[in-house]
């Protein structure tokens, strides 16, 4: 799997390019020619001398197509990329500030230098009429290259220029593939870390097409990168998250009592374990639907004939068998059920559980007596048979304080003595869908 080693770093170049195109309403082949012509114009623009790179939070500007001109005297074509992480910047008040040396990502923006024309230029008027339809949108360019810290900045800028031009070509291909009449999708790049690549791989998707509509394209990508067809490597939810970038949404991954303004203290632990499992499938890109609420879980059990209609809105418990039914009905996920007649027998399931986490990786819901828990992993010795369980406890009622959750043992390793030695237990082992 990619990510940078001690001597490598990522250069990330972003910016917007305005796409303008006037489409012939009546001629499909002409529309495609016009789209291609507009992309060709943009590829010419990024080769112009007016293109400028700027280093984020820095006074450094680079003209990569103008014999590598730089705004700072101590930066030239031979400057090592690693020095960018250590460069000092005047904050405008005469003070110098150090850039973060620990970050493996150097962020740059591109823009076009505005110059006064030598001759008056006539304005271009775009308007819709019965024969033509005007398309105007900003293309969200986002290019990455992985470089060695001792690689020259001049060489790296040339690679970024090639990446810009390549990304425009990929955006053109996606646009032509998914445009319908005069409806043109916005192409958007995503970066992925793959087990078969030593660098981030960038894929362009049309923003208006959902994951289901892109399945055939993802199959092509799996073949191109020689990836198995059993994991959704290229779903947008699995795109690489840069360490210096905030998360777009703050979704719950640990579901426990009293969340979402739902007082389920004393009866909702299995519901919360199920929600954690659903969250795992969502985070891994297997589903786009939101994590089901208690009421939706209850309604699903009514829909499959497991419970009567009065069950919806009740405070009745559910167990592993019900969790299995809901996963099948709402997510299309199958599950294996393991049964032990008493908690003292759980260590005997060590091999089965270790194999599950090795091959499937999904959280396991375990219910016994009146309590339910979520098992996130096991540490099992094949020689001695000793086992420890990584437990996520849904009975926690406090706030979302990671320090408290870990320090107080609400998420942590537990020995076999954690389980009631005389109570029976059912374990629901969700099977990872073989899907892309």
Tell me what the structure shows.
The chain is an alpha+beta fold. About 25% of the residues lie in helices and about 25% in strands. The chain is built from 8 helices and 16 strands. It has helices at about 30-45, 155-180, 215-225, 270-285, 295-305, 320-330, 350-360, 400-405; strands at about 10-25, 50-55, 60-65, 70, 90, 95-100, 105-110, 130-150, 185-190, 200-205, 335-340, 365-370, 370-380, 385-390, 410-415, 425-430. The strands form 4 sheets. It has a 6-stranded mixed β-sheet. Helix 1 packs antiparallel against helix 2 and helix 4 (about 270-285) runs parallel beside helix 6.
Set out the fold topology.
Elements: E1 8-24, H1 28-45, E2 51-55, E3 61-63, E4 69-70, E5 88-90, E6 96-98, E7 105-112, E8 132-148, H2 153-178, E9 187-192, E10 201-206, H3 215-224, H4 269-283, H5 294-303, H6 320-331, E11 335-340, H7 350-359, E12 364-368, E13 371-380, E14 387-392, H8 402-407, E15 411-414, E16 425-430
Parallel strand pairs: 1-7
Antiparallel strand pairs: 1-8, 2-3, 2-7, 3-4, 5-6, 9-10, 11-16, 12-13, 12-16, 13-14, 14-15
Keywords: Hydrolase, Protease, Thiol protease, Ubl conjugation pathway
GO molecular function: deUFMylase activity
Family: Belongs to the peptidase C78 family.
Sheet/helix structural class: alpha+beta
> What is the global morphology?
elongated
Q: What radius of gyration results from the CA coordinates?
A: 28 Å
- H-E order: EHEEEEEEEHEEHHHHEHEEEHEE
Q: Bin the strand percentage.
A: 15-25%
Mean pLDDT over the full residue set? 89
Number of helices: 8
Approximate helicity band: 10-25%
Protein name: Ufm1-specific protease 2
GO molecular function, one term: deUFMylase activity
GO cellular component, one term: nucleus
InterPro entries: UFSP1/2_DUB_cat (IPR012462), UFSP2-like_2nd (IPR049387)
């Amino acid at each position: 799997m990619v990510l940078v080693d001690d001597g490598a770093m990522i250069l990330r170049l972003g910016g917007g390019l305005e796409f303008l195109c006037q489409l012939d309403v009546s001629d499909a082949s002409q529309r495609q020619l016009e789209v291609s012509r507009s992309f060709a114009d943009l590829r010419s623009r990024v080769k112009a001398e007016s293109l400028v790179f700027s280093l984020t939070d820095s006074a450094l500007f680079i003209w990569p197509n103008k014999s590598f001109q730089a705004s700072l005297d101590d930066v030239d074509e031979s400057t090592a990329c690693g020095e960018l992480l250590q460069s000092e910047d005047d904050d405008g008040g005469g003070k110098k500030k150090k850039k973060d040396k620990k970050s493996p990502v150097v962020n740059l923006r591109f823009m076009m230098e505005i110059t006064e024309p030598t001759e008056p230029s006539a304005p271009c008027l775009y308007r819709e009429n019965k024969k033509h339809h005007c398309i105007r949108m900003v293309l969200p360019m986002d290019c990455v290259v992985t470089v060695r810290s001792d690689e020259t900045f001049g060489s790296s800028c040339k690679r970024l220029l090639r990446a810009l031009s390549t990304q425009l070509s990929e955006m053109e291909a996606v646009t032509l593939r998914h445009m319908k009449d005069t409806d043109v999708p916005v192409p958007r790049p995503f970066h992925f870390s793959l087990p078969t690549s030593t660098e981030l791989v960038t894929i362009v998707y049309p923003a208006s097409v959902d994951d289901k509509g892109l399945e055939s394209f993802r199959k092509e990508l799996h073949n191109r990168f020689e990836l198995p067809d059993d994991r959704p490597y290229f779903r947008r939810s699995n795109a690489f998250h840069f360490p210096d970038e905030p998360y777009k949404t703050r979704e719950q991954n640990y579901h426990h009592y009293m969340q979402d303004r739902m007082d389920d203290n004393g009866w909702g632990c299995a519901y919360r374990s199920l929600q954690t499992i659903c969250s795992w499938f969502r985070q891994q890109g297997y589903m786009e639907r939101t994590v089901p609420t208690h009421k939706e879980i209850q309604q699903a059990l009514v829909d499959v004939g497991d419970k009567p209609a009065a069950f919806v809105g009740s405070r009745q418990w559910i167990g592993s068998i019900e969790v299995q039914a809901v996963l099948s009905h709402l997510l299309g996920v199958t599950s294996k059920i393991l049964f032990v007649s008493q908690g003292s027998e759980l260590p005997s399931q060590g091999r089965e559980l270790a194999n599950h986490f090795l091959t499937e990786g999904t959280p396991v819901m375990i219910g016994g007596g009146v309590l339910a828990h979520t098992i996130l992993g096991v540490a099992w010795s094949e020689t001695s048979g000793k086992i420890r369980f990584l437990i996520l406890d849904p009975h926690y009622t406090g706030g979302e304080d990671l320090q408290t959750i870990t320090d107080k043992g609400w998420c942590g390793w537990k020995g076999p003595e954690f389980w009631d030695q005389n109570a029976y237990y059912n374990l629901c082992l969700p099977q990872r869908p073989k899907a892309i």
